[in-house]
């Protein structure tokens, strides 16, 4: 069974985090919520989530993918975390999948794992400060890095995580079950 870590920092965007967790679990992928610094994490809109574990306990070798939801100030906390940057570099060195949505590509830039092409929340590319920004697609897959624009693209982003991990069959089945066009 594939296993994915979804990193939650105070101020995370709830739509992006919960959609990813939900879709991954529907695909029978073990989606593990990971608090950046603590188990009880508050979303940007005041929704409190109890994470399955904290980042200090994450073992890179147990996971196939790491996912960073955006939201503010959540993405800023992610970008400023030296521990997360170390983990992102380890994922990248092992060519494991790294996904970020909305403002969270900022953390990928800080960790120096972004490749040639990415997308993020429109206007936030200045904060990401990395060449290769495009707004032509809602989801960009560049080697092992998957990025997406924001809350309205959360479903498309999550379905693409399934596609990357399990292929077209499960992706298409889920799209049909979810009435996604």
From TrEMBL:
One of its GO terms (cellular component) is cytoplasm. Residues 2-163 form the DJ-1/PfpI domain. Pfam families: DJ-1_PfpI. Transmembrane segments: none annotated. Coiled coil: none annotated. SUPFAM superfamilies: Class I glutamine amidotransferase-like. This is DJ-1 family protein. It comes from Campylobacter ureolyticus.
């Amino acid at each position: 069974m594939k296993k994915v870590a979804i990193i939650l920092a105070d101020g995370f965007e709830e739509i992006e985090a919960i959609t990813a967790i939900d879709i991954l679990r529907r695909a029978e992928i073990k989606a593990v919520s990971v608090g950046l610094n603590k188990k009880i994490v508050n979303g940007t809109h005041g929704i409190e989530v109890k994470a399955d574990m904290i980042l200090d306990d994450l073992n890179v070798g147990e996971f196939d993918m790491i996912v960073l939801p955006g939201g503010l100030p959540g993405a800023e906390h992610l970008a400023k975390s030296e521990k997360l940057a170390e983990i992102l570099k380890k994922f990248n060195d092992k060519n494991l999948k790294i996904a970020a949505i909305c403002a969270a590509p900022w953390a990928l830039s800080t960790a120096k794992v972004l490749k040639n092409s990415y997308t993020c929340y429109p206007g936030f590319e200045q904060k990401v400060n990395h060449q290769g920004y495009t707004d032509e697609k809602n989801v960009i897959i560049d080697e092992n890095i998957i990025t997406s624009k924001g809350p309205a693209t959360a479903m498309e982003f999550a379905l693409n995580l399934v596609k990357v991990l399990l292929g077209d069959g499960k992706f298409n089945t889920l799209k049909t079950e979810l009435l996604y066009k």
